[in-house]
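Hi L., both proteins are below.
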Amino acid sequence: MRERREGELPAPEAGDPEWLVAPVHDRVRQDRAAGWWHRHRPKAAQLLSRIRTRKTRRRNRLRHRPKAHQEMSRPPIPARKKKQRRRTTRRPQRRSPKRRRSLRPPDLVIGLTGPNASGKGEVAKFLATHAIGVHSLSDSVREEATRCGLDHTRDALIETGVRLRTEGGPGALAQRILPRLRRRAVVDSIRNPGEVAILRTLPRFILLGVDAPQRLRFDRSLRRGRLGDGATLQEFAAKEARENATTEAGQQLMATLALADAVIDNAGTIRALRAAVRGTLRAFSVRL
């Protein structure tokens, strides 16, 4: 029997299986003949063992895996629900009637009285520059005249003022202006003793009289140009005499001036008038 050459495939024997004899397996036969299987057998066995172990582990995991309805899954975190306010039908609440604030009486009220064009308005302007509120009884008369459709002439205002005093008493105009007074205030155009009596009820009231010669007051009225003051000195004096009526509801300028706590002579300049006002109030412990 001849020897086999290196790399030559062994001849099939009678006992070889069919797969070994088949030509398709010539590569395997050739590898076996070259001794590949014997050289790599330990490594191949180790590789097969690893594959077998992985399959076993996977099989065991599948075997011991719980069913779908038995899965121990983490319960979902419930969404935070918004706190809903309970809707209830509210009964309409009764609103208590607003209480009227108790009016605090003013700390100081300075009243001004005197004949026509004597300078009462200049004194009021001077006091207004020292943070003192200015009010005038004539304003109430003008408001009433406007409501009745009358003009603001001197005669119309006198008639309206007399009617208000007749209906509400001698101090009706002062009674109307009391709610407007705050802290330190000036009340101008006081022409009736009844008005002085109402203002005397305040904690601190000072009545200042302002006077000047009649001729000088007439010249000032011409420069002022107010309707109804009188175009001549005689007409001016006649109207002033009517204002000094003796009736309770009429204007009583001279009687009211006699009730003044101090009378200021306004026969000089405006600067002298302001100095006199300052000095007079200082005597009553009022500093501007």
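That was the first. Here is the second:
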Amino acid sequence: YTNLGNAYISGARPDASLEWYDRAIRVFDQVLERESNDVRARLGLKISYSGRALAHFQLKHYADANADWEKAIKFSPKPEQPRYRALRATSLRLAGRIDDAVQEVFELTNIPGWNAERLSGFARIYSIASGQSLKNADEYAKRAIELLKKSIQLNYNDTALLKMDKDFEPLLKYGDFKKLIADLDKKSAPEK
């Protein structure tokens, strides 16, 4: 069942995948009821919940995606959990739960090894939070800019996105952000 769900996701049919993930989850749950330490059932649940979370995400059912990311995390080995937590942070942001997303990202940024794309995604969450918070706006903006600087060190260079994406608008009033954009513009400008 999980493989059929995955096939529908791969075929850009997240709506059709949900039924198959539901079936897989029911089967794996029944196995775990009989044998609570069954490694294959736990792996199957991790894959099925993460697949269903992705389907919900693609369908913009962010609350449902969050619930499934929770389950995928529960059934994942510790080293895999940060990846699913990062995906959950994005779902939380899109569900309008920015405070929860900030808390998640705060914890995740203490884990080394994130790539440039993921760091810029974390920066996005802090940027949005800076625009919504009266109390912590400067702190969140500072953290967003720090994360963007780290992502640039890892070769992130989407200057156009940073300039035009409304999620980064709250940072436009900060000199450090303006300097970061100017430096990126210089770096990406063709040599004369």
